[in-house]
Design a protein that fits this description.
The chain is an alpha/beta fold. The chain has one domain: Thiamin diphosphate (ThDP)-binding fold, Pyr/PP domains (Rossmann fold), CATH 3.40.50. It has eight helices and eight strands; from the N terminus they run H-E-H-E-H-E-H-H-E-E-E-H-E-H-E-H. It has a six-stranded parallel beta sheet, with helices on both faces. The mean pLDDT is 91.
Length: 197
């Protein structure tokens, strides 16, 4: 089994140097904590809780309804595996403004660190490619992050970036767990951007 050296807490600043340019939808757990910490829970980012498997579908809906905005989904391997068919729906709809970043630690960090499918044989980039997503890239080392950031800006969308990180803790940022407040904040940011475009 390959040993990965990327620390998940270091990647978002490298991949998204300007997070304000996106509408961001995250999956659960580590993806939500890391994004909340990096953006300081900015209005343009919604971090999900209690909605496992929904990030890609929600991000697709945002991308289709706001075609002039760049939309970024940040999710984890376990969350994505729960709704992997959503990749085929993304490919069928072909939004030109959607990027999906899967931060994969190869385990289920929230429930005790049990090995996940990607720690064995499952290749999420191949699954995305097989679903029909035109641009896929895998990142496993720090020296690949600059190329990955460029990929998220320049590759034809929709894009899928598989970031393989070492097991380890996500940010210890304490999220706002008032999910209604978070949803309304994101909704208002979304509507304000749509009005301007």
């Amino acid at each position: 089994m390959t040993e990965f050296t990327l620390d998940r807490r270091d990647i978002l600043p490298r991949l998204l140097p300007d997070p304000d340019k996106y509408l961001i939808v995250t999956g659960l757990a580590g993806a939500a904590k890391d994004t909340a910490d990096y953006t300081k829970e900015a209005a343009n980012a919604i971090t999900l809780g209690g909605a496992m498997g929904a990030a890609v579908s929600m991000g697709l809906g945002v991308a289709l309804s706001a075609p002039h905005e760049e939309v970024m989904v940040i999710t984890g391997d376990g969350e994505l595996m729960m709704s992997v068919g959503s990749l085929a729906t993304v490919a069928s709809m072909m939004p030109g403004n959607l990027s999906i970043v899967c931060v994969d630690n190869g385990c289920h960090g929230e429930t005790g660190g049990q090995p996940g499918h990607t720690s064995r044989r499952t290749n999420l980039a191949l699954m995305a490619e097989g679903a029909g997503i035109p641009s896929t890239l895998t990142v496993e080392t720090t020296d690949q992050l600059d190329a990955a950031a460029k990929f998220l800006v320049e590759a034809p969308a929709p894009r899928f970036l598989w970031v393989r990180v070492m097991p380890g803790p996500s940010s210890d940022y304490k999220r706002n767990w008032n999910l209604v407040e978070g949803r309304l904040k994101f909704r208002n940011a979304y509507l304000a951007r749509k009005k301007q475009s």
